[in-house]
Specification:
Layout lengths: L1 E7 L1 H4 L9 H8 L4 E7 L5 H11 L7 E5 L16 H17 L3 E5 L14 H17 L4 E2 L1 H6 L4 H4 L9 H18 L15
Helix pairs in contact: 2-8, 3-4, 4-5
Length: 204
């Protein structure tokens, strides 16, 4: 069976939580018996840590597709411990995309989401947008599709309360938006009907 790897930070790790309609759990349900959906979500990770583990966590699995969702922690304000300057974030993301693409896997990038400034002191919308822009530029330069989660969420009414659980992380509604945006991108390269269904024909 082909493998789809969800590789990212806290949002990806939380993507397995069924109570909040986590996008990883929903992908696993969608592709059951057709493709293995593997979660490689690491709370608190930036692109620096992602680069240090991509070989073992992702490439060793020889995936057909990798969904890369990073930037939530890179984009904290400069005074914060996890901060990664936007130029370094851009370079790190380029290196990740290059290494994954060279392995033969197809990719989808996911930008950081917007933030509710009144509920966090470590992030701002303006600062986050610079990282979203870097993500979009990497996608454009390297011909990789990008789910612009920042735009998709911030265009919803009352998104601050509806789509974010704590001002930073995704609520169930935010997870719905991410999942719905990923499906067309995945179907472009791996249509569900094209994946053989594992099992004995005529049973189940």
């Amino acid at each position: 069976m082909k493998k789809i790897i969800c590789f990212g930070d806290t949002i990806t790790e939380m993507g397995v939580v069924t109570e909040s309609r986590g996008y990883v759990a929903r992908l696993a349900e969608r592709y059951v018996r057709r493709a293995d959906v593997l979660v490689r979500g690491f709370s608190g990770y930036t692109t620096r840590e992602a680069l240090s583990i991509v070989d073992d966590a992702v490439l060793a699995e020889k995936p057909a597709c990798v969904i890369v969702q990073l930037g939530l922690h890179d984009s904290v304000l400069p005074a914060q411990f996890l901060h990664v300057p936007v130029d370094e974030f851009h370079a790190n993301l380029e290196e990740l995309v290059s290494r994954i693409a060279c392995s033969g896997a197809w990719l989808v990038l996911v930008s950081p989401p917007p933030v509710h400034e009144r509920r966090t002191r470590t992030r701002t919308m303006e600062h986050t947008e610079a990282y979203v822009s870097a993500c979009l530029h990497v996608g454009m330069d390297m011909n990789v599709p990008v789910v612009n989660l920042f735009r998709l969420i911030s265009h919803h009414d009352h998104w601050e309360k509806r789509c974010l659980s704590d001002g930073v992380h995704l609520s169930a509604a935010g997870m719905d938006i991410l999942y719905d945006a990923l499906i067309p991108e995945l179907d472009e390269q791996m249509p569900l009907h094209s994946l053989p269904r594992l099992g004995v024909p005529g049973i189940g």
